[in-house]
C-alpha cells in the first residue's frame, strides 16, 4: 500500500474517534442528561474538556490532514506531488499525538479522582481519598445523593475517553 492510501486510512480512522471523544465530553457536561448540575457541581476533569479539545479537535485536524495527504498534491498534478501534504500530515500527527495524550491523562485522573457529588449535604470529591479504588467497590457508587447515578455516568464516559484516546495514540503514532 502506498503512503498516500495509508495516510487516508489513518485519517478515516481518526475522524470518527475524535467525534466520539467530542460526544463523550459533551455528555459528561450533562450528568444524567440534565443541565441542572452544571452550577459548580461538575469535576475539574470535566471542565478541562479533554475529550473536546484533546481527543476531539486536536486529533480531528490531523485526521483531516491525513485524509487530504492521500490526494493529488498541493499544487494539482505535478510540481511537488504529495510531498507537501505528507509533510504537513507528519507535523499535524505530532499535534494529534499531544491531544490524545492530554485526553488520556485528564480522563485517567478523572477516573482516579471520581466525580464531584453530594453526600451528607456536602459537595466534594468523596472518592478521592478512599483506600484502594472506588472503581472496584460498587457499593460506594450509590452513596452519591446528587446527581443521581453520577458515578456510573462518569466511569462509563471517562473509561470510553481513555479507551478511545489509546486508539488515537496508536493510529496517530
Automatic annotation (TrEMBL):
Q: Which domain of life is it from?
A: Eukaryota
InterPro entries in the record: L6_membrane
**Record membrane topology:** Multi-pass membrane protein
Q: Which GO terms of the cellular component aspect does the record hold?
A: membrane
| Alphabetic keyword roster | Membrane, Transmembrane, Transmembrane helix
Q: Which family does it belong to?
A: Belongs to the L6 tetraspanin family.
Protein's name in the database: Transmembrane 4 L6 family member 5 isoform X2
Q: Which organism is it from?
A: Panthera pardus (Leopard)
